[in-house]
Design brief:
Blueprint: H1 2-21, E1 37-40, E2 46-49, E3 55-59, E4 73-75, E5 82-87, E6 92-97, E7 106-111, E8 126-132, E9 154-155, E10 162-167, E11 174-181, E12 185-195, E13 200-207, E14 213-221, E15 226-233, E16 236-244, E17 253-262, E18 280-281, E19 286-292, E20 298-304, E21 309-315, E22 322-327, E23 333-339, E24 344-349, E25 354-362, E26 367-375
Length: 376
């Protein structure tokens, strides 16, 4: 009996140990360890830190995103707050200043003890000191630099702000971004100016891979303005650039950028014919019912015999601004119209036989128009 009782006690003790382990297969118990910092983008005591640098901290384990914000991730010695984002794929929190850090100044980054991991364990808290550099274009490079051309364009997503970007050195600094759309959609390039000179001049340009431009817009604004332009794109990958139009050798702006999507303009049967090298053949001596989109170029071509005269007439009955271009066999512009006349026409007599091109463009989405093509 005593041996049997001992065996029962041993069995009960083993069961209790299994229960306390949190798993009957010897697996790990509940997480009771505090998270630690695995790496930082700046080091304690570092100097010559950029004035718009993104400051990132990677933690040792997944964190509770609700605890990561501008009250638990703070930089002192500055006049304004910033944006804090958390990437749960890399366990990394990042701070983006929304104004320039004070130049040649020591700053203190504080990570609060309110930061916690997914199990609720709190970070012990800590500080890191760093000194910023002086006000130069080198110290105003943003976190997506260098992206001065299509070959080095920074890929960005759609419908979310990319924070704390800069252009410096007037019109000579370009920021290029690459984006992809999976379906036909209207894309607004929106730039929110945060710090700039009054009446800051701004240019946005949509391009395709070979650098050919869809459309560019020039505008201006003060700090707080949201500037931009839009275009309807077919599925594919495209590029957009922004830069200043200011001629001064040292002009900078701090801005946020977003590619915001919207319902596309309606297409007609000839799309995608936005460029001359994608021009659609169209039948002469007929009237065609077509649709024009905001700043969307529609290119067409017809073959002419030497001595024939091509006349292209556009009628909308809406008074919207329209542009017509006519090019000969050498692709040289031979007639041009820009205005609101209704109808509006361009014409040309062929000096030699071959393919001739013409283009229509409107400044209102969904412009229904008649295109009359006559060859005499």
């Amino acid at each position: 009996m005593r041996m049997a009782t001992l065996a029962i006690l041993v069995a009960l003790s083993a069961a209790a140990l299994i229960s306390c382990s949190g798993s009957d297969d010897g697996g790990p118990g509940p997480d009771v360890s505090s998270p630690t910092v695995s790496s930082m983008s700046i080091q304690d005591g570092e100097t010559e830190v950029g004035l718009v640098d993104k400051i990132s901290v990677t933690f040792s384990e997944p964190m509770d995103p609700a605890t990561i914000n501008d009250t638990t991730f703070v930089i002192a010695e500055r006049s304004a707050a910033g944006f804090v984002e958390y990437d749960d794929d890399t366990n990394t929190a990042s701070f983006f200043p929304d104004s320039l850090l004070a130049p040649e100044t020591w700053h203190i980054l504080t990570l609060s003890g309110d930061l916690a991991d997914e199990a609720g364990n709190h970070y012990e808290g800590g500080t890191t000191s760093f000194e910023t550099g002086d006000v130069t274009c080198e110290n105003l490079l943003d976190h997506l630099e260098p992206n001065p051309d299509i070959a080095q364009a920074a890929p960005i997503g759609l419908d979310s702000w990319v924070r704390t970007l800069t252009v410096c050195n007037g019109r000579y600094d370009y920021d290029y971004f690459q984006f992809t759309v999976d379906e036909t959609v209207k894309v607004h390039a929106r730039a929110k100016l945060r710090e700039c000179i009054d009446g800051f001049g701004w240019i946005t340009e949509f391009r395709r891979a070979d650098g050919e431009m869809y459309i560019n817009s020039g505008t201006s604004g003060d700090a707080g303005s949201v500037l931009g332009w839009y275009y309807t794109f077919m599925p594919g990958t495209y590029w957009v650039s922004v830069h200043s139009s200011e001629s001064a050798p040292w002009v900078f702006t701090l801005y946020d950028f977003m590619l915001e999507t919207d319902e596309p303009c309606r297409d007609d049967i000839y799309e995608d014919n936005d460029f001359m090298d994608a021009a659609a053949q169209i039948a002469p001596n007929q009237t065609h019912e077509l649709i024009g989109c905001m700043v969307d170029a529609d290119w067409f071509w017809v073959d002419l015999t030497q001595g024939e005269t091509l006349t292209v007439t556009v009628t909308t009955n809406t008074g919207t601004n329209r542009r017509l271009r006519l090019r000969d066999t050498d692709q040289v512009e031979v007639d041009y119209y820009n205005g609101t006349n209704d109808p509006a026409s361009v014409s040309h007599t062929a000096t030699r036989s071959g393919t001739h091109f013409f283009m229509t463009r409107f400044w209102t989405d969904g412009t229904e128009y008649e295109l009359d093509i006559t060859v005499d």
